Amino acid sequence: MAELNTESTTPTVGVALLGMGTVGREVLRILGEAEQDFTARIDGRLEVRGVAVSDLSKPREGVDPALLTDDALGLVKRDDIDLVIEVIGGIDYPRTIVMAALNAGKSVVTANKALVAAHAMELADAADASGADLFFEAAVAAAIPVVGPLRRSLAGDKVNAVMGILNGTTNFILDAMDKRGASYDVMLAEATELGYAEADPSADVDGYDAASKAAILASLAFHSPVGFDDVHCEGIRNITADDIAAAKAAGCTIKLLGICERLVDEESGDESISARVYPALVPLSHPLATVSESFNAIFVIAEHAGRLMFYGNGAGGAPTASAVLGDVVAAARNVVHGGRAPGMSTYANLPIADFGAVRTRYHVDMTVQDRPGVLAEVASTFAAHGVSIKTVRQEENVDGARLVVITHHATEQALEETVDALMQLEAVKNVRSVIRMEGN
Ligand code: HSE
What we know:
Layout: E1 3-4, E2 11-18, H1 22-33, H2 35-42, E3 45-52, E4 68-69, H3 72-77, E5 83-86, H4 92-103, E6 107-110, H5 113-130, E7 134-135, H6 147-153, E8 159-165, H7 168-180, H8 184-193, H9 202-205, H10 208-222, E9 232-233, H11 241-249, E10 252-264, E11 271-283, E12 295-302, E13 306-313, H12 317-337, E14 359-368, H13 374-384, E15 389-397, E16 400-407, E17 410-411, H14 412-424, E18 428-437
Parallel strand pairs: 2-3, 2-5, 3-4, 5-6, 6-7, 9-11, 11-18
Antiparallel strand pairs: 1-2, 8-10, 8-12, 10-11, 12-13, 14-16, 14-17, 14-18, 15-16
The structure holds L-homoserine.
């Protein structure tokens, strides 16, 4: 419970900050700069009473050394702590601390997408049991308000799809490969230097960071538990300059997309969820194609609201701190005034669809022998698997002919079987790449 400040009637909310990395430092800086505004917005004063760090010997600018501790668990259990801000990262260690805080009835604000994607239900159950709040706006696309809109603003609607650019590092790399002809390796190094990339950039380039965010978005959008392991995930390591050029030739650009979709079985009407992350061709006319550099954008399609787009800074210290502090104000107001934000809503409990049932379009790039009948053979292989061809482009190359086929919508299973069959044809020298096409 918030306590009354003896000099005034303003209650004080005791805060524990876990982590003093880029985001933790910004949280403290902004809190210090706008103290009176926070007090007015909360109807109570925030007091940071402890800051947990892993290495006490490191100099920490902007924080009273007396507040520093390496005992995060002890800190969150203290009686004078009402609210815990977790910006440590990782999964197992913060899970222990956050669970202890929630079990003790302390509200938690976390920016940790990996933790929420892996353990949302366990954390939400603990919060429900103790009456604490659990907020995680910063876990998805940092400064962009999308968790709050899905959790609150769209609670009266039916969301059918969420599709977005959920990772700044990969967007930065793909955008530079497209616009400047830059190489993948050079741009990855630049993204790391600029602080966009995760400590281990494979979380970015292999799609895991986006997959965590997609799991969180799918859970909220479809009122169902969706975890990291439920998300089909492919990264951008295999995207080449040739793929980018082929996308341009098709009037598209390549983006790493996180897609959460409500699938409806045509015969039974049964609903299921597809959550997936992969690089895809996006037509230049689609709003997501214009999202450049390290920006993120999330497109939501709801039955009554229609199409909504959320755009902005999805990474970085200050943008992430902005989202953290928005949650801090909401959680602290609840500490002062009582009440709770709505918990995780999972009543719909929709199953996760088999990836093979997902339907999209495909850009299939192959090298074939340049002789009579080859095009017919390739076309009949697509037809035999029920995959309808939309366009075919052929150009000569040194190995024979390059054939780029763009399909109409087909299931992943049908496409996979088609590609397997194409590779058995003597006329097909290789299938260079298969990239999905989204956004049309
Ligand atoms: N590495 C992430 C990105 C930061 O590039 O978007 C936010 O999760």
